[in-house]
């Protein structure tokens, strides 16, 4: 008898002729995730499984698999010889002592002498003989004993399904450039888009020495957490101080944040194209702050010429974003109290509905904008995170 971890994929099932493309990406990502753990990964006849691991690595393997997009659920299973006595013994051992249960059988091996229903009934009877406080409930059982009789002479027996992250394998949808601040929302935005199969690159704007080295480290830490779902991330750290100083010196202060955002978007698009990204991702949520009103978003949108912008948090309440941040492990880092470059030169009353004409006039007050952008891009510090 072998203990194995059975892996089931989710939405890939819906794919047609190109399913193989998604399956091989998933296999590659699983292998990458487990590469430093002593274990064997096999996929045969639509069953993926991890086997030959030591007891103490079991929890680590489960935690790692929960971070791989494309996996719907996993089960810790016993892999045994297809033999009725063996199956009975294993199922009886697996059953809990009390409550309600049912047996679910899948019989791929049509040579097995009982049908699925007969097998379930037979095994259910055997379990009841040994566990007197159990009863059968076919519709709402406390637990299910699953029997999966394969064609190769082996049978899986397992009880619980552990729900995993779902989504599509990372890398199957291309690559996106995530605007990563030190806040709560943007790491969540990155997580959500890599869940749909995007590889991520990230860009962070810092205003050293107005913002500290610690603020940058916090962003690196956030990128590390996001990268545990998204394989590897190249983080471009852009020196943004000079641009902010120029805006502060020359422009209407109530437009400070709007103009800062315009420059961020222009630079993000340039860097995204340089790094082979097909979209831009940010953590905006409609109406959350002055820079995220429809009018403000419209202005920042207009700065991007060629790429789509994805805002997966746009329709979410802060509470909902926080719940995801807590689930994926970014929240505690996000709330560390280091300043973001957006808080530098913050005006008392930022414009809530910026006027496009006025934005153009304010931008024209920085005639060397192109030079400043080029200089910022030339001085990017690239940090590779995996
Ligand atoms: P977050 O929690 O993600 O920081 P926020 O609620 O603080 O978001 P804003 O500060 O208005 O909102 O930022 C909106 C979006 O702009 C962020 O989600 C992020 O994608 C991007 N952004 C803001 N500041 C930076 C920065 N310093 N570097 C890179 N991107 C940034
Ligand atoms: Mg922020």
Structure, explained:
The chain has 386 residues and is α/β, with parallel strands linked by helices. Helix content is 39%, strand content 22%. The protein has helices spanning 19-33, 58-65, 84-94, 116-130, 185-195, 213-230, 241-250, 256-274, 294-302, 318-328, 331-334, 356-363, 369-378, and strands spanning 2-9, 40-44, 47-51, 71-81, 99-107, 134-136, 143-149, 154-158, 162-163, 175-179, 199-206, 233-239, 279-281, 309-310, 381-385. The strands form two sheets. Strands 1, 2, 3, 4, 5, 6, 7, 8 and 9 form a nine-stranded mixed beta sheet that branches. Helix 5 (185-195) runs parallel beside helix 6, helix 5 (185-195) crosses helix 10 (318-328) and helix 7 runs antiparallel to helix 8. It is elongated. It binds adenosine-5'-triphosphate and magnesium ion. Magnesium ion is lined by residues 181, 183, 340, 342.
What secondary-structure arrangement, pairings included, does this model have?
Blueprint: E1 2-9, H1 19-33, E2 40-44, E3 47-51, H2 58-65, E4 71-81, H3 84-94, E5 99-107, H4 116-130, E6 134-136, E7 143-149, E8 154-158, E9 162-163, E10 175-179, H5 185-195, E11 199-206, H6 213-230, E12 233-239, H7 241-250, H8 256-274, E13 279-281, H9 294-302, E14 309-310, H10 318-328, H11 331-334, H12 356-363, H13 369-378, E15 381-385
Parallel strand pairs: 5-6, 5-7, 10-11, 10-13, 11-12, 13-14
Antiparallel strand pairs: 1-3, 1-4, 2-3, 4-8, 4-9, 7-8, 12-15
Bound molecules: adenosine-5'-triphosphate and magnesium ion.
Magnesium ion binds next to loops.
């Amino acid at each position: 008898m072998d203990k194995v971890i059975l892996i089931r994929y989710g939405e890939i099932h819906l794919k047609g002729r190109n399913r193989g493309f998604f399956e091989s990406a998933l296999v590659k990502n699983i292998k990458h995730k487990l590469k430093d753990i002593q274990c064997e990964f096999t996929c045969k006849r639509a069953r993926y499984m991890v086997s030959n691991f030591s007891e103490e690595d079991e929890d680590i393997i489960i935690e790692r698999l929960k971070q791989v997009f494309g996996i719907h659920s996993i089960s810790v299973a016993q892999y045994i010889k297809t033999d009725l006595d063996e199956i009975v013994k294993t199922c009886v051992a697996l059953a809990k002592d009390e409550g309600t249960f049912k047996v679910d059988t899948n019989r791929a091996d049509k040579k097995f002498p009982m049908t699925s229903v007969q097998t379930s009934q037979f095994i259910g009877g055997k379990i009841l003989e040994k566990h007197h406080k159990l009863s059968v409930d076919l519709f709402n059982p406390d637990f299910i004993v699953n029997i999966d009789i394969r064609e190769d002479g082996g049978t899986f027996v397992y009880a619980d399904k552990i729900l995993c992250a779902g989504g599509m394998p990372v890398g199957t949808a291309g690559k996106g450039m995530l605007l990563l601040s030190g806040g709560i929302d943007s790491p969540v935005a990155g997580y959500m888009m890599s869940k749909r199969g995007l590889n991520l690159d990230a860009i962070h704007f810092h205003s050293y020495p107005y913002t500290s080295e610690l603020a940058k480290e916090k962003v690196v830490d956030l990128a590390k957490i996001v990268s545990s779902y998204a394989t590897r991330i190249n983080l471009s750290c852009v020196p943004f101080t000079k641009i902010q100083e120029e805006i502060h010196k020359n422009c209407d202060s109530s437009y400070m944040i709007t103009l800062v955002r315009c420059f961020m978007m222009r630079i993000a698009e340039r860097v995204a194209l340089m790094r082979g990204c097909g979209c831009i991702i940010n953590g905006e949520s409609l109406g959350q702050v002055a820079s995220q009103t429809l009018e403000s978003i419209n202005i920042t949108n207009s700065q991007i010429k060629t790429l789509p912008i994805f805002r997966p948090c746009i329709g979410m309440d802060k509470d909902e974003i926080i719940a995801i941040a807590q689930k994926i492990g970014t929240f505690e880092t996000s709330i560390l109290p280091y300043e973001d470059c957006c808080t530098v030169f913050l005006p008392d009353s930022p414009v809530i509905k910026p006027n496009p004409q006025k934005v153009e006039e304010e931008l024209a007050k920085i005639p060397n904008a192109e030079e400043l952008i080029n200089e910022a891009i030339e001085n990017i510090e690239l940090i590779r995170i995996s």
